[in-house]
Amino acid sequence: IVYEAATADIGDINMIDPFHLQKYDISAVNYNRDIENFPILKSILERIGTNIYKSPTDMAISKTKDGILDDSVIVEAAKQEVIRRYFRYKKENLLGIIEKDVVDRTEKLMLKLGVDESYRKVVLAARDCAEQGYNQGKGYKSLFCGTAIEIDDGKKIITGKNSPLLHSESAAVINSLKHLALVPDNIHLIPEDIIQRIRKMKRNVGGSVNPSLDVSEMLIALSVSIGNNSYSGRCIEKIPLLNGCEIHTTHIPNIGDEEGIRNLKMNLTTDALSSQRIYLRT
């Protein structure tokens, strides 16, 4: 199912290998492309005087299962990967990269697995965070974004809201690092004057309509702030703990957010809201 989700944009599916069934009277699952092209390979092999394969399955007997010690871990990882693919396709469909049927195909795979969007813990947490921002009158220029990060092996979910100073992704990363480094919430890791200087440069030099800091900019500002307080250094030391963490945001991240999150090696998904303000965010 994960393979079908990963290739939903090109329509690949898993099928019973008819060649294997005919030859050995054993049902084996294989990829449709292998099955469709096996007659071509078989013809080529016969022409060169060898025919060692009787079916596509013969060509690649998988020994992966021999290395699986806990099937429940594999099943859970598969569910999470299919959901991540689903959110990716939703975003790409919204941007006009793929057709809606790819999203629908992946959603059907999720139904087979008995999961939906909410199965990914950070999804509802990010949406609730954005709603809280709206109710509290936070956000920036009537745009209310929420981001959630799952840390401590899923034991804790940390959120962040957007503001005139930081994107919601940046706020969530900072809040996560503070939690991991045991830094009190009332401690400001990055002096506001540093943030304001960056915002001023983005507005005056780059013409940015939203000069708040994305993740890439925030990480640079955090490293610069080490000289101002020891807490920043402690938080930077905890950055490796974000590797592999799940993160979800309610809006389409900009390039700086995506690159920063990718550098942190986190698994990103997004609701890809259709507000025009989001597309103009830089």
UniProtKB/TrEMBL annotation:
Name of the protein in question: Uncharacterized protein
All residue ranges annotated as the DUF1846 domain in the record: 1-113, 119-273
Organism from which the protein derives: marine sediment metagenome
Pfam family, one: DUF1846_C
UniProt cross-references to InterPro entries, sorted A to Z: DUF1846_C, DUF1846_N
